[in-house]
Amino acid sequence: MYKSLQPILESELDAAKKDGTYKEERVLESPQGREITVQGKKVLNFCANNYLGLSGTDIMEKASEEAVKKWGYGLASVRFICGTQTVHKDLERAVAELVGTEDAVLYSSCFMANVGLFQTFFGEQDAIISDELNHASIIDAIRLSKAELHVFKHMDMADLEQKLQETRNKRLKVIATDGVFSMDGDIAPLKEICDLAEKYNALVMVDDAHAVGVMGENGSGTPEHCDVIGRVDFITGTFGKALGGAGGAFTATHKEAADYLRNRSRTYLFSNSLDTAVTGASLWLIGYLKSHPEYRERLWENTRLFRELMKKNGFTVSDAQHPITPIMLGDEKKAVDMAKALFDEGIYVIGFAYPVVPKGKARIRVQVSAAHTKADIEKAVEKFAFVGRKFRVV
């Protein structure tokens, strides 16, 4: 039977290779970090969501080892049967305290947290109003719910208000947005969103995967950065980026909503409990970062330096207040080929093309980290300028 599928796949894959949308994974032969080994070559890594530079470090390795030693390797069960340990409850409390909610529920990934949220709370009588540039996990999660979908223009508050007016008779309305948009580094205008939500009696959901640990004075995320802590109903986030880089996720919310998720969320009820290494290390790290603001301070210093130097060298760089720095190129093949040329120069970045971003919006997304040195950043900019001239980008 596969003979009928095989030629279709071969044709699609060949077309993707020709137009630059084929995704080729580069295999790391070293731990994650500011410098990695790929294809036997050491390169500076400007591609990981390792914002605080903690992934692959000795301190995370030690915290993980200690957690496994104390709690065992795994639970071999779902949470409500025999898969919940003290460390899981402690992490949920720590997360809720960090982001400013009453409770939190752990998930295996932020994708599963988003699916579990929309599928559990919203049905045919309800409406979900989603930013057009939301992460794929939000888009797919909404598809799996039976709620009516309305999409508003990216961070366009007038269009959002119009959608709220159109859905004013729905049983429940929820505004769904990324806190930080992963392809552009844009920060959602949460104060304006919360104001509209209160005006039209709507709930607010924020996927804060790229912000928890990074944004806000205490690293609480975009609600802290936008001064709306306590006004967001659902916050999803991950331990797989700034908070250690391994995996795992959460939904932080009101007490009753968290209780309901534990009883009704299919991606929670039918998934094994979060493994002890990630759980214990994430709990340790949340406490550690409270007394070590220097990680975030260094991250912002590095981000400012990279953007300033890129602008001086002729690149158009947005003023978004986040370490995500897209270098817009438009042409899919150029983005992929330029990223390969940078790799040859010792800089690891990836060209992003359709379907990760819309057609015609191809880019190289640079991820600045607290682990980068000034010399690292200066070298990266020097190589970008060199390759950029070759590709007639600058």
Describe it for me?
- This protein is an alpha/beta fold.
- The protein has 2 domains: 17-46 and 294-390, Aspartate Aminotransferase, domain 1; 58-290, Type I PLP-dependent aspartate aminotransferase-like (Major domain) (Aspartate Aminotransferase, domain 2).
- Helix content is 44%, strand content 16%.
- The chain has 15 helices and 13 strands.
- The protein has helices spanning 2-19, 58-71, 79-82, 86-99, 110-121, 136-144, 157-166, 190-199, 222-225, 255-264, 266-269, 276-290, 294-312, 332-344, 374-390, and strands at 35-38, 41-45, 103-107, 127-131, 148-152, 173-178, 203-207, 234-238, 249-253, 324-330, 347-348, 350-352, 362-367.
- Helix 9 (222-225) links the parallel strand 7 (203-207) and strand 8.
- The model has no long low-confidence stretch (mean pLDDT 95).
